[in-house]
Amino acid sequence: MGDAPKRRLPVVGSGAAGAAPPRGGAAAPEKRKLPVLQSSGDDEGEDRPPWHWIALGTVAIFIAWLPLAGLVNTLLRRMIERAGDAGAEGSVRLAMVGLNAIAFALAGVAGGYLVGRFGGRAGRREAAASGAVVATLAWALALAEGAPAGALGWALLLIVVVTIGSAASYAGGRAGLRSRAASGPPRSR
User: How far, in Å, CA of 169 to CA of 51, rounded?
Assistant: First the structure.
């Protein structure tokens, strides 16, 4: 081992372009560059089908509704703690229903606006459908809780909640479409 000549390894990148490879070595593969795609902004990719926007609107409504419902119910809990007499019970129940309905309607408007503004081919109909889906899911969760209301009560509640959800989402979708029309076509950078 002591008498054999020491072999040096080539330093990566030290050879000149087009130079012969070192003795016993193979030629390095030529580096290839990736093409740069220039996006004009008009073609952002494949447009989602309208039914995708129903699902996206449903998720958006839930995301907006949960914090609003939490805030409303925290305020209502404080109202109940302060109201000590039996006469205030009816007004607290009315406030509970009204404020939760307002929170749901605001969330429906927000989700509908998202669908109308960014929905591509989706519009007011898909926005209203997303509000109806959320209302039906919320109704089914309440039904699973088992609150006593009777069949007629549950049917009326479903009709009222679906009406509120779809009307609010429809209004939000309409506002989103107006906003999309006012902003004009997307501009390229």
Answer: 15
Within the chain, residue ranges assigned H as helices are: 50-82, 88-118, 124-145, 150-183
Give Cα 23 to chain centroid, integer Å.
Answer: 60
The answer to whether 110 touches 60, Cβ cutoff 8 Å, is yes
Answer for the pair 103, 72: CB distance below 8 angstroms, yes or no: yes
Per the rule left: phi > 0, alpha: psi between -120 and 50, beta: everything else, 45 is: left
pLDDT digits (tens, 9 = 90+) for 120-176: 888 899 999 999 999 999 999 988 887 777 788 888 989 999 999 999 999 999 999
Tokens matching residue 88: 């205030």
CA distances from 155 to 86, 150, 179 (A): 30, 9, 36
Question: Which single residue is written with the structure tokens 């080539």?
Answer: 10
Please give the full DSSP string across 29-46, using - where no structure is assigned. PPP-PPPPPPP-SS--SP
Tokens of 10: 């080539």
> Cβ of 56: how many Cβ atoms within 10 Å?
19
DSSP assignment of 6-26 equals PPPPPPTT-SPTTPPPPTTPP
pLDDT tens digits, 77-115:
887 777 665 556 777 778 888 999 999 999 999 999 999
